[in-house]
Recover the amino acids of this structure.
């Protein structure tokens, strides 16, 4: 009989007592083990043999616990053919981008089962099979990005060693409707392009416009971010410091077409900025810029004319009827929100205001900026290669000329040109020394037009059967279209938006009058040609 003074007291724990007995005998059920188990807990001999067999496999005390009666957890009693139908319909029908409802899945399974002469499963059975799927994988197959994001673990933290080591940049449609300058009537929602310095959480800069996101808007945002902003703030009557400046080492962005453009890749390579793309459909990898955009949009929701974040939240609010801010007024409001509030508040991750962190660490920043502002900005513009002919350079049937091109006429070489899609009244031509010169319409009587206006006018003429198109014909068509838009502007938001998007007429000196960036701290030659967004 197994009994010894060192035997522990297991009066209330039969599992521990059995473990003690079986370990003494090497897992063998001897007569002494049977007698001790029967005497102590009344365990039958047959039950003891089953428990010992499970214990020898796992060596775990839990294997000696008595099991409940009935079907064990994980056991399947359904007909294997019905199980196959459920699995096939869940995988082939329910896990689709069209996101079929659960009720539709039940109907499909029932139809297939009846067709094959099987008894349809109960709703709870199908529900259990669906709930056993891996949530993240199922959400990815069904295109449910919110569920996928909520199910994706993100234990890491993105940290950056010093200021300007990495900027994140992105676009968003602002949740507010703006009005035009003339009629003060709604023209739609603008697009905000904004950049953040990850180390200090300072907003590096932004650009607000009515145009769709493009490499041009990225370039204008970077132009605002890279250079000193004192003059830009003075023009808007803002007396609050915004000290962020300098070129970032890394530009972190998503996989949008505007960030994948050749113009942006070439510009970043030219100025030593590395483009870093986050994995597709993974907004968590751009968490800093996404949170910043969320903060900005949360503030915008307090403005008249806001569209809120969803139709449900907006309810019966008349966004267009309440709108009263122009694009310029909204730009100034966003600037004040950034420099007057966001930079001054204690950041939850830094536990300090972003401005204080920048001031403390700005000695680590390299302020060696590109000396040629025009070359920096034009590097982000789309480009083409064209030959210089006797009557100038031809782009989209428009002729351009500059006296500086005279010496190259007749050489036959292709020249690299850059153009601003918002204003085709000028192009920028790279000379042999690498510098850009500005060429304007050969016929200066033509008005500035945008790329989209020009394309639309050409398409309208071709739809009328006009195959041989000349610049004077196209400009005449644009003039007629603008006249129609001007008449409709008092009643049509689309027409008012088109009028607002038109490029401004050039000043008498032939250059834009608003210099948005201050470069007084840096040296430049007096003959530098400069171009500014007005």
């Amino acid at each position: 009989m197994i009994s010894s003074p060192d035997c522990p007291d297991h009066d209330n724990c039969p599992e521990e007592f059995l473990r003690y007995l079986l370990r003494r005998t090497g897992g063998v059920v001897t007569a002494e083990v049977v007698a001790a188990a029967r005497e102590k807990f009344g365990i039958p001999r047959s039950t003891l043999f089953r428990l010992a067999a499970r214990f020898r496999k796992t060596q775990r005390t839990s294997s000696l616990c008595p099991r409940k009666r009935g079907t064990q957890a994980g056991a399947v009693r359904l007909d294997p053919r019905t199980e196959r139908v459920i699995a096939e319909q869940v995988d082939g029908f329910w896990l689709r981008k069209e996101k079929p409802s659960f009720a539709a899945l039940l109907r499909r399974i029932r139809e297939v089962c009846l067709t094959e002469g099987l008894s349809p499963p109960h709703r709870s059975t199908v529900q259990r099979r669906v709930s056993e799927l891996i949530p993240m994988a199922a959400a990815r197959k069904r295109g449910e990005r919110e569920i996928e994001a909520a199910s994706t673990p993100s234990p890491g933290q993105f940290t950056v060693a010093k200021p300007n080591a990495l900027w994140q940049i992105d676009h968003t449609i602002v949740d507010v409707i703006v009005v035009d300058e003339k009629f003060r009537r709604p023209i739609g929602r603008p697009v905000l392009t904004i950049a953040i310095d990850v180390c200090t959480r300072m907003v590096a800069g932004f650009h607000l416009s009515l145009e769709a996101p493009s490499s041009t808007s990225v370039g204008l945002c970077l132009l605002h971010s890279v250079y000193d902003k004192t003059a830009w703030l003075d023009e808007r009557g803002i007396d609050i410091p915004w000290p962020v400046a300098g070129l970032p080492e890394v530009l972190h962005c998503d996989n949008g077409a505007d960030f994948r453009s050749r113009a942006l890749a070439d510009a970043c390579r030219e100025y030593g900025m590395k483009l870093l793309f986050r994995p597709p459909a993974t907004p968590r990898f751009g968490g800093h810029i996404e949170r910043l955009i969320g903060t900005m949009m949360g503030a915008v929701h307090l403005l008249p004319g806001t569209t809120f974040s969803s139709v449900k939240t907006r309810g019966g609010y008349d966004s267009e009827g309440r709108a009263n801010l122009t694009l310029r007024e909204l730009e100034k409001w966003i600037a004040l929100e950034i420099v007057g509030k966001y930079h001054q508040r204690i950041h939850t991750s830094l536990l300090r205001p972003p401005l204080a962190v920048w001031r403390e660490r700005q000695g680590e920043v390299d302020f060696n900026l590109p000396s040629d502002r025009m070359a920096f900005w034009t590097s982000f513009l789309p480009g083409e290669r064209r030959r210089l002919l006797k009557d100038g350079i031809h782009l989209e049937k428009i002729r351009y000329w500059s006296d500086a091109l005279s010496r190259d006429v007749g050489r036959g070489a292709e020249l690299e040109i850059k153009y601003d899609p918002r204003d085709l009244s000028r192009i920028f031509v790279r000379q042999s020394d690498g510098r850009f010169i500005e060429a304007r319409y050969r016929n200066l009587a033509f008005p500035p037009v945008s790329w989209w206006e020009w394309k639309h006018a050409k398409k309208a003429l071709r739809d009328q059967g006009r195959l041989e198109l000349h610049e004077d014909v196209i400009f005449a068509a644009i003039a007629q279209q603008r006249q129609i838009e001007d008449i409709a502007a008092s009643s049509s938001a689309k027409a008012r938006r088109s009028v607002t998007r038109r490029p401004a007429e050039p000043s008498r000196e032939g250059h834009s009058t608003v210099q948005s960036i201050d470069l007084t701290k840096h040296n430049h030659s007096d003959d530098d040609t400069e171009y500014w967004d007005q």
